[in-house]
Amino acid sequence: MSAPVRWGDFLTLPENRSALRATRTAEKVLLVGRRMPFNPLVLHGPSGTGKTCLISTLLRRLNSGTEVVTARSVAVGDLARAAASDDEVAGFDDDDLTACDLLVLEDVQLLPTRDADAVCALLDQRVSLRRAVVVTANTGPAEIRHLPRKLTSRLASGLVVQLEPLSPASRRVVLEDAAKRRGVKLTPDALDWLARQATGGGVRALLGLLGNLAQIAPSFPGPLDRAAVEGILSGTGQPTSAGRSVTGIVRRVAAAFGVSERELLGTSRLRRVMVPRQVAMYLARELSGRSLPQLGTAFGRDHTTVLHSCRKIEAEIETDERLAGTVRQLRAELG
Question: How far apart, in whole angstroms, are the C-alpha atoms of residue 299 and residue 305?
């Protein structure tokens, strides 16, 4: 496979080229204030195939451009909570959802059936105003069986693009790139072996394993070969560190921010508690190798809340140097 082209943090692979092309088209028309040639744009694929990275890159590029483009990314779980305050109203009490230039609705497959009418109304408003909508899901609209046809047909009326499950060759490219970024030296046979591990077509679990390897790699004089990698990951050579577990991450983040673990895992909406909670979710997603639903269970939240928290921290560390430094230090300590 030829060297992949990078679009921000997003690596171009055979399985995601169509999705990247559609997303870049959306970026271009938004920057010049033109109407999207397709609306909505639906990006779907299994967990770990790059939807999150692709959307994050799009939002960063829009925010860093010279043109003023207002963009909003919302997890459908947050929409559902907003609508729950008044079941009789088929809409959301948030004008910005209609007015912003770009609205991203994340993980629409998690939308409760009761909120389908509200989302239909929101889509109709935005399309009539020629405001762009990008939707992410783990499967195509027609396969989201619990949502009514009036919503799935609206989603399918734009452009639906799949990010396909990654082949071992593509997973190897992503692993090699991530290993270089983290300073983990792996031999070709180690990379080949890791890339062949079953992941359901994504790479998030593999990146979690790479985080484990990063903790012990400095103690090896040379690159880790396949035998060393298998030994480490099987437990025979793995360091006993709580940093890779969600419990260990929560403990270390709570200490760093001066809050208790109970507060961090609780329901407080105070910023002094919410920020460390979001940081813990962000680092747990990166370092633990667990899926979003698993992390939601660990933190006592749902899947979309964890994703929203990760997005918030990704955005804040771009502009808040103090927070970025704290996150870098915690990442280094946790491995």
Answer: 10
pLDDT digits (tens, 9 = 90+) for 70-117: 998 888 866 655 555 444 334 565 677 888 999 999 989 988 888 899
Q: What is the dihedral of CA 214, 220, 223, 226, to 10 degrees?
A: -80
Cα dihedral sign for 313, 315, 19, 99?
positive
Tell me the whole-structure pTM to 2 decimals: 0.69
Instruction: Please check whether residues 59 and 119 belong to one and the same domain.
Output: yes
CATH code of the domain in which 271 resides: 1.10.1750.10
CA-closest candidate to residue 23, choices 53, 48, 49? 53
Taking each helix axis from N to C terminus, what angle separates 226-234 and 188-195, rounded to the nearest 10 degrees?
A: 50
User: 17 is in which domain, residue-wise?
Assistant: 6-162
Q: Please state the length of the chain.
A: 335
Q: What is the pLDDT of residues 8-48, one digit of tens each?
A: 889 999 999 999 999 999 999 998 888 888 999 999 998 88
In terms of domains, do 22 and 149 share one? yes
Q: Tell how strand 6-7 and strand 10-11 pair up.
A: antiparallel
Task: Report in angstroms the alpha-carbon separations of 40 from 155, 160, 218, 222.
Answer: 6, 8, 47, 49
Domain termination site, one of 217, 234, 251: 234
- Final residue belonging to a domain, choices 211, 234, 257: 234
Tell me the two tokens of residue 164. Answer: 């396909």
Residue 143 to residue 146: CA distance in whole angstroms: 9
Does some domain include residue 1? no
